[in-house]
Amino acid sequence: MDKPQFSPSKGTPVNNFGTDNDEPYPSLSDYHDYEPNLEFDDSELQHSTTVLAHTVDMIQAESNSMGSPISDFTDDNFEEELAEACEENLDSLMFCSTSYPEVGDTAPEKFSEISRYGIVDVKGDDADGRKIIVVYACKLPQIKEIDHGLLLSYLKYTLESYVKQDYSLIYFHHGLTSKNKPSIGWLVQAYKAFDRNYKKNLKALYLVHPTSFLKFVSQLFRPLISAKFGKKLNYIHRLKELNEFIPIEKLDIPNEVIEHDKKLGGEVPVSRTSPDSVFEPTCPTQQFGVTLQYIRDQYNVIIPPIVKQCIEYLDQPDALETEGIFRRSANANKVKSLKEIANTGQKVPFDDPHEAAVLLKKFLRELKEPLLTYELYDEIVQFQSWNNDERLRLVSILVMEKLPEDNYKVLKYIIRFLSRVMERSDLNKMNAQNLAVVFGPNLVWSDSVSMSLAAIGPINMFTQFLLVHQNEIFMI
To answer: Its Gene Ontology molecular function terms (predicted)?
Structure first.
């Protein structure tokens, strides 16, 4: 049916990064023999500051024996910082009861003074469909210029919707100095302030350009960190290493971090893809990474076969009622295998709902052009500025008149299915807001700027509006 018209590197190989079974994530730093080895027993950390002092001496001795200075953490006062940490009452840090405002206790407008720094950002999805959250130490202002209690509230408020699903966290350490670093006590309190969901759904933590002191602090936190959480931590010494897992062009890496990487001997990788790159499918039956028009020409259908297979599998009652559907990862190797099968034109054999859910998101994310098209991106990110009384009319015009007809039909097919997911939200916990957070950045993105927290907000709101008002927008 036609759409209606609407009138106005080397070392130990890293495995299991895409799994959902909390398998160990080997450190990428194992082969850097110039970095001090900070392995010591947790119990020693908990009962004795003397052990901390001894560790400081050990680190300094190892560094001196190798003839290289310790990588700085706070300008030139590395030893002083360590001494201060040792003088603190570690027990009081570990079990401090200082409370910070819960999400919602602070009015969102109060966060504008924090958000302007760009300390934290959300950069779309990684290759396994997990949200990418980025923290830039170099964007932290001087201590006297920021309220760290307000910063913690802002972080919780901003990230709350994204950490309900599996996600990856990237921390760029370069740029943290004695002038802008939070205290160790604040770090402990911040760690404790984030509830279990923040830690449970974190699937990979990348520490980029770690210094010796950062590794020391990581060990300091070991009594507070579960074994599962510790296995997710990965030291990344060069941007080229990070690019193996997440394309760095997605991350808006500050120039000073790039320059620091070059000084360390790194080479900034060339972008893997370009909007202007020549479109060359690898086989006639390819479905991933191509255009909707290509799939239509090859298969003579409007709805891509893989989209139909995923949705038909997920439309079964047991699948629809799966808690956290679309939030969880699936085994990366299995998903890769299923993608290869789909690209041969064969029917995909799913073993569980999460595989089908991840593959559907992956298909949308890898389209040559987003389903809602590059052309409509600028309009969609202005959604929050639209008058409430005009939103239904404007969204309907955008979807029914401005979208190409094939895109409209595929979008309608997906949104109708998601409405059935919402009907089972009492069991699967996926309401319109949760689904919008998952699908929004996979439906539209720009061909000229990377995804950011500022853009994701209105994109998610637009998607949620589509879901809530789908009966009015997608006329039968």
So the answer is: GTPase activator activity
